[in-house]
């Protein structure tokens, strides 16, 4: 290719990049909303008697690297240290919940290095992160903004890199990547490293100390945050590279030039043509594999400390790909994914006692689409992945952060398909679909209702149409395989849902992929088999008529039976006679049940009952078979206590 062609290509790329940055910079509406939100929170702070504190913006709304998807970071600064940050945020949350100040999705994120409240501004739909006393955040935003002020190319390159990283889902420490702020440090460091540099080292240029007290994680550190601010007085950079050269240069630098094994990204110390030895940064232990991106003020913070092997590889691969596209084609739009991801993930660590139905129930109201649940035997503190169909459902679901599911206080983190893919390399997962779960629950509720209908009559103890959703048979999950990018391989055969009794067999699920040919009796008994089973049961005394190998047979399901004490008002408690009757009832139910059956004192009985497919209707619905219905009827007819069964 001729020099003329190259020059033309560079020209076009420069134009494309300028246009891209310009389009993303038109955030006047968002800025107006940001000012309104700041005023509103300021007013609330005063109402709460925090008059000496001032609400300030920080993060990308003040550091120059704002994009169309940036959240608004605000903090309450000033003399608020007599009260803990969490206590102040609690008071804010209580007021925001009780008064309509135009915010929704109020989410507490208190178990973090910087505790914060996440809010959605109803009017602008802008996300707001509100924290208290994070003066370091204010200072580092000011530092980045000063670099942008010194040379516009810092701002342009920063915005381009951030958009690129976000679009490729490379942002987020919980998925083993870097956060937005870290990418901006990478940009400044690269611009400092060029010869001649595009930006100077502002921290090295300042002499006057500016100490800031930092209380992250409840500790107390004093950090030097000095940097030179009067950039208008500095001579302009000698570097004449255009943004069309700097952008591929950035990707080249980090994929080819920078030695991640020995050097640190350290804007505090960097000078053109020099390296910062990562082992010289003595505050943090490190090794060859670990990337090192030092925070310019909080020297205990390596922003790459949570980068995983897979995360680093993805970042490097995407950078190398962007470099190759820019070098060969010179077209920026080809460096970005053609269409944005349509699945929205969140993940949380769960305790051993949390089961798939627990999570499905907890997130049903937030339109959870799928749950990817780790097979619990393989991981001690496993992570579950929640999949939503849109960003707003996921955001609403985030409000459950730090609430309890069973015994587990959940910490919800945004994740991505890649986060799930990486987790799959470490442990097998099962996938549950909310739609199947709901359908299965409806079917079982309807069946119990039908049973009630067929067993009704004078003096008959009714079944109420109620199935405890926590106990009923889960739809069989689909094993999830490590993905062949971007979608995973076809689902593997259903596996036992974790959390159910060890060998509880799967009930047939209408509309789902049937399980592979079982080694045990099939779901729908053959005519002869059914006849044989009928005879077997008929000829045995009731107490011995327990279904054959109930825990092995497919077509068995667990019903959760609760004994309710709907006694007459004048007889509010269990009499010894009632207790006796309960015991008897329990003993009777043993014929259906197995060792999991609970003692009657708990008023709860688990029944392992044979379910067959409703062959008559052809619907494929599971129903109680005739024998079981008949036996239940007999037992309940003979039971004299004022105790009903639901
Ligand atoms: P954000 O993650 O919101 O990043 O952190 P951002 O720079 O505003 O970028 P976008 O546009 O929203 O994606 C907000 C600010 O919190 C401080 C930085 O000041 C950052 O700009 N911060 C964040 C830290 O000091 N350390 C961190 O590890 C992360
Ligand atoms: Mg932000």
From TrEMBL:
Keyword Metal-binding on entry: yes
GO MF term set: metal ion binding; nucleic acid binding; nucleotidyltransferase activity
Spans annotated as Disordered: 513-551
InterPro entries named among the record's database cross-references: MTPAP-like_central, NT_sf, PAP_assoc, RBD_domain_sf
Boundaries of every Poly(A) RNA polymerase mitochondrial-like central palm domain copy: 14-148
Gene Ontology terms describing biological process: RNA 3'-end processing
SUPFAM superfamilies: Nucleotidyltransferase, PAP/OAS1 substrate-binding domain, RNA-binding domain, RBD
Biased composition (Basic and acidic residues): 526-539
Cofactors required: Mn(2+); Mg(2+)
Domain PAP-associated: residue ranges: 243-301
Pfam families noted in UniProt: MTPAP-like_central, PAP_assoc
Location(s) in or outside the cell: Cytoplasm
Cellular component per GO, a single term: cytoplasm
Protein keywords: Cytoplasm, Magnesium, Metal-binding, Transferase
Source taxon at top rank: Eukaryota
Protein name: PAP-associated domain-containing protein
Protein source organism: Effrenium voratum
């Amino acid at each position: 290719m001729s020099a003329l062609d190259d020059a033309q290509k560079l020209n076009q790329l420069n134009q494309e990049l300028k246009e891209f940055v310009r389009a993303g910079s038109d955030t006047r509406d968002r800025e107006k909303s940001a000012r309104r939100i700041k005023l509103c929170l300021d007013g609330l702070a005063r109402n709460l008697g925090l008059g000496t504190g001032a609400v300030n913006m920080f993060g990308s709304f003040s550091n120059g690297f704002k994009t169309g998807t940036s959240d608004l970071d605000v903090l309450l600064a000033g003399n608020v240290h007599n009260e803990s940050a969490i206590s102040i945020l609690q008071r804010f949350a209580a007021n925001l919940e009780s008064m309509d100040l135009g915010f929704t999705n109020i989410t507490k994120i208190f178990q973090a290095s910087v505790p914060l409240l996440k809010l959605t501004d109803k009017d602008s739909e802008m996300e707001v992160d509100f924290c208290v006393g994070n003066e370091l955040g204010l200072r580092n935003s000011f530092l980045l903004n000063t670099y942008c002020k010194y040379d516009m190319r810092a701002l342009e390159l920063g915005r381009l890199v951030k958009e690129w990283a976000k679009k490729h889902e490379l942002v987020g420490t919980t998925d083993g990547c870097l956060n937005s702020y870290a990418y901006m440090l990478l940009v400044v460091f690269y611009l400092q490293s060029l010869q001649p540099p595009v930006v100077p080292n502002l921290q090295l240029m300042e002499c006057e100390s500016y100490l800031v007290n930092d209380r992250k994680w409840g500790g107390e550190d004093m950090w030097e945050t000095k940097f030179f601010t009067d950039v208008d007085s500095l001579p302009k950079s000698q570097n004449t590279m255009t943004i069309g050269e700097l952008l591929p240069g950035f990707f080249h630098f980090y994929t080819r030039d920078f030695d991640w094994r020995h050097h640190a990204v350290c804007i505090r110390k960097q000078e053109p043509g020099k390296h910062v030895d990562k082992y010289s940064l003595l505050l943090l232990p490190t090794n060859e594999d670990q990337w090192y991106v030092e925070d310019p003020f909080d020297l205990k913070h390596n922003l790459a400390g949570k980068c995983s092997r897979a995360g680093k590889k993805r970042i490097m691969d995407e950078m190398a790909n962007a470099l190759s596209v820019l070098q060969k084609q010179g077209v920026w739009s080809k460096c970005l994914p053609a269409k944005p991801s349509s699945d929205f993930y969140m993940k949380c660590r769960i305790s051993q006692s949390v089961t798939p139905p627990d999570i499905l129930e907890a997130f049903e109201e937030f339109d959870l689409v799928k749950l990817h649940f780790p097979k619990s035997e393989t991981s001690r503190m496993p992570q579950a992945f929640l999949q939503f169909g849109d960003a707003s459902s996921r955001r609403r679901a985030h409000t459950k952060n730090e609430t309890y599911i069973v015994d587990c206080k959940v910490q919800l983190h945004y994740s991505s398909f890649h986060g799930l893919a990486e987790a799959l390399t470490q442990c097998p997962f099962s996938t549950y679909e909310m739609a199947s779960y709901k359908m299965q629950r409806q079917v079982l509720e309807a069946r119990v209702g039908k049973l009630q209908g067929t067993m009704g009559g004078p003096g008959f103890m009714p079944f109420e149409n109620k199935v405890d959703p926590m106990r009923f048979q889960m739809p069989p999950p689909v094993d999830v395989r490590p993905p062949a990018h971007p979608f995973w391989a076809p689902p593997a055969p259903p596996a036992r849902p974790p959390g159910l009794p060890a060998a509880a067999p799967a009930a047939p699920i209408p509309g789902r992929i049937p399980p592979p040919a079982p080694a045990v009796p099939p779901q729908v008994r053959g005519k002869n088999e059914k006849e044989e089973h009928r005879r077997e049961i008929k000829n045995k005394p009731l107490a011995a008529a327990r279904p054959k190998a109930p825990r092995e047979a497919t077509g068995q399901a667990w019903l959760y039976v609760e004994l309710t004490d709907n006694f007459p008002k004048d007889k509010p408690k269990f009499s010894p006679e009632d207790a006796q009757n309960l015991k008897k009832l329990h003993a009777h139910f043993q014929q259906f049940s197995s060792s999991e059956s609970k003692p009657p004192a708990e008023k709860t009985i688990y029944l392992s009952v044979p379910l067959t497919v409703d062959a008559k209707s052809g619907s494929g619905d599971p129903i109680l078979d005739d024998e079981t219905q008949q036996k239940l009827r007999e037992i309940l007819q003979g039971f004299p206590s004022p105790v009903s069964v639901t």
